[in-house]
């Protein structure tokens, strides 16, 4: 809702991308169900839907460029070995650089390796449209991070950077659970010579334990009637409610596009990124 209203208020285009780069985890029919739900709620996208599962060649090219620049290297560390690493400031385990200077000892014999990108010692800063100035030292908070897993699946961080540039994205509007990922993406953008879009990270609905609501955690499905869901989400985002109840999703969106005010968004805490996006 926030991204759609922001795009329409700026007379911009709104694009839909199915981020199914992790093919083994993708459930058959899930993407089509998402698109049907968006249509039912009145969302209209302005270009054909992109699917990351069909973009592997582009990610391979980007990884090759990182390797050619000496910025990516193979890592043979296992999840069990990394589980002992200390937690960083943003709630993720910091990679200590075990394989940064090459695979040594028994690790050199392992058949499966991931690919990591080297991170700078200097901080990476950006200004979020809601949260203000953000600064992160990747070397201290994350360490060299994975851009392709040992099973060959490309990481979200690399895929989204490549696709944002290819689709000429100027503004990214997404949940605050991805705020901590943004410096990694900016680092990759700079390494690949790609532009950096503006960012707006908005509140996400969480449960009593502070975890993002999802079907995996028992969140209820959207109601069949679209208007109650639209109005509830609009209120959650702190926006001014329509003076009269809209009679259709189209009428709601006409109001929302004219009355979207990012400044009204509630304060947004930084949340740890979803584990699937950190791999």
Q: How many β strands by DSSP?
A: 9
CATH architecture: 3-Layer(aba) Sandwich
Helical content class:
25-40%
Strand order of the largest sheet: 3-4-7
CATH topology: Rossmann fold
Query: What kind of oligomer do you see?
Result: single chain
Largest sheet: 3 strands, antiparallel
Number of domains: 1
Question: Class, according to the CATH hierarchy?
Answer: Alpha Beta
Rounded to the nearest angstrom, the distance between the terminal CA atoms is: 27 Å
Treating each run of at least 4 consecutive H or I residues as one helix, how many helices?
A: 10
Q: What sort of overall outline do the alpha carbons produce when their principal axes are compared?
A: elongated
Give an account of the 3D structure.
This protein is of the alpha/beta class. The radius of gyration is 20 Å and the shape is elongated. The protein starts with a helix and ends with a helix. The protein has ten helices and nine strands. A hairpin with a 3-residue loop joins strand 5 and strand 6 (about 130-135). Mean pLDDT is about 90; it is low at about 275-279. Strands 3-4-7 form a three-stranded antiparallel sheet. It has a two-stranded parallel sheet with strand order 1-2. A two-stranded antiparallel sheet has the order 5-6. It has one domain (about 1-210, about 265-279): HUPs (Rossmann fold, 3-Layer(aba) Sandwich). It has helices at about 1-10, 30-40, 55-70, 80, 140, 155-165, 180-190, 225-235, 250-260, 275-279, and strands spanning about 15-20, 50, 70-75, 115, 125-130, 130-135, 145-150, 170-175, 200. Helix 1 (about 1-10) packs across helix 9 and helix 6 (about 155-165) crosses helix 7 (about 180-190).
């Amino acid at each position: 809702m926030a991204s759609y209203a922001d795009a329409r208020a700026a007379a911009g285009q709104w694009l839909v991308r199915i981020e199914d780069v992790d093919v083994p985890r993708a459930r058959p029919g899930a993407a089509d169900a998402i698109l049907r739900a968006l249509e039912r709620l009145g969302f209209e996208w302005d270009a054909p839907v992109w699917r990351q599962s069909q973009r592997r060649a582009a990610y391979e090219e980007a990884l090759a460029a990182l390797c050619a620049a000496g910025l990516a290297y193979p890592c043979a560390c296992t999840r069990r070995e990394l589980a002992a690493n200390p937690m960083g400031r943003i709630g993720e385990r910091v990679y200590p650089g075990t394989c940064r200077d090459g695979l040594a000892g028994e690790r050199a014999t392992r058949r499966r390796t991931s690919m990591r990108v080297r991170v700078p010692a200097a901080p990476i800063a950006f200004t979020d449209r809601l949260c203000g100035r953000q600064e992160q030292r990747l070397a201290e908070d994350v360490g060299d991070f994975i851009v392709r897993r040992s099973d060959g699946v490309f990481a979200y961080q690399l895929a989204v950077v490549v696709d944002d540039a290819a689709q000429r994205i100027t503004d990214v509007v997404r949940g605050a659970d991805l705020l901590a990922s943004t410096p990694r993406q900016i680092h990759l953008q700079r390494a690949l010579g790609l532009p950096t879009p503006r960012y707006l990270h908005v509140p996400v609905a969480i449960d009593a334990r502070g975890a993002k609501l999802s079907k995996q955690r028992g969140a209820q499905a959207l109601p069949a009637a679209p208007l109650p869901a639209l109005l509830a989400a609009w209120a959650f985002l702190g926006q001014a409610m329509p003076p009269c109840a809209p009679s259709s999703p189209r009428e709601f969106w006409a109001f929302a596009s004219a009355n979207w005010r990012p400044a009204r968004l509630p304060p947004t805490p930084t949340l740890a990124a979803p584990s699937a996006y950190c791999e």
